[in-house]
What we know:
By secondary structure, this protein is mostly beta strands. It has no helices and eight strands. The chain has strands spanning about 1-10, 25-30, 40, 45-50, 60-65, 80-85, 90-95, 95-100. The strands form two sheets. Strands 1-2-4-6-5 form a five-stranded mixed barrel. A two-stranded antiparallel ribbon has the order 7-8.
Amino acid sequence: xxxxxxxxxxxxxxxxxxxxxxxxxxxxxxxxxxxxxxxxxxxxxxxxxxxxxxxxxxxxxxxxxxxxxxxxxxxxxxxxxxxxxxxxxxxxxxxxxxxxxxxxxxx
Length: 107
């Protein structure tokens, strides 16, 4: 599982039938800053993910990739590699809150 920020949406009018009706998002994985360990930083990479939870642009989400992406009831038989499985409320590392949805510190 990975933390990621929703950076946008993807529209594909022509796609395999199994994918019709599934919302596609662009997401950027985030990681804990290795120097300070007090904030999350973007990796500069982008993935396309199927949204199963109603996430929106700018939200911090939890994603899964690979075979795990096909283990949700919504994606069991889909040709997908990345899926949004949760919207993150808070991230704590040791005694510090490095992200809170209400006053997030995602850079």
